Amino acid sequence: MDRMNFSLRELKFDPSSAASMTFEGYGAVFGNVDSYGDVIDPGAFAVCLADVKAGRRAWPAMLSQHGGFGLVADDLTPIGVWEDLSEDGTGLRVKGRLADTPRGRDLYTLMRMEPRPAIDGLSIGFIPKEWEPRSKPDDPRRRIKRIDLLEISPVTFPANGRARVSSVKSLGTARDLERLLRDAGLSAAQAKAIAAGGFDALSASGTATARAVRDELTRRRASIAAL
Length: 227
Prior knowledge:
- This protein is an alpha/beta fold.
- About 25% of the residues lie in helices and about 30% in strands.
- Strands 1, 4, 5, 8 and 9 form a 5-stranded mixed sheet that branches. A 5-stranded mixed sheet has the order 2-10-3-7-6.
């Protein structure tokens, strides 16, 4: 199994999905030479992804640090699942959900740290099925045409800086809720009042924006109340 690493820098948190611990980004970027000298061509994942979604092969695992050395069971125990994988003009687009387990929560905390994430890399584990070797000294070591994808891991030391996480979704604290309400157009005072006092903090005489937000939050009451 080969590995190829990509950066997850510039994490952005999206609190629109309550306590989901989901994140999105790119597991691979096309046309970019990694530190091992490999380049992945567009379409390299197409056959594998079609087989995955048709049930002809298993979904890639989500491991931490490629499963370490695989010396104990925890090393190879998944930390979550990949919910969607697709190719676009940039590369392999991934959406994953971290498990509500100690290891999943630890990783989520590390990805959310400020002023910068402590974990900011993705790495894919794959079997190259078709590739072109270097024909000139300045060519990449390999130009990979088709890949069987085995696993995708958050890692500490990425080798490629172009793949990035675009969002990490959760609504785990009152501050997250305040940020969501401010983004929806409420004032700082309104957002703080709702986060502290619940839905009744929005009076019937509030602004149209406040009333619209209250209606939307009411529809989501069950999930938000569970936080």
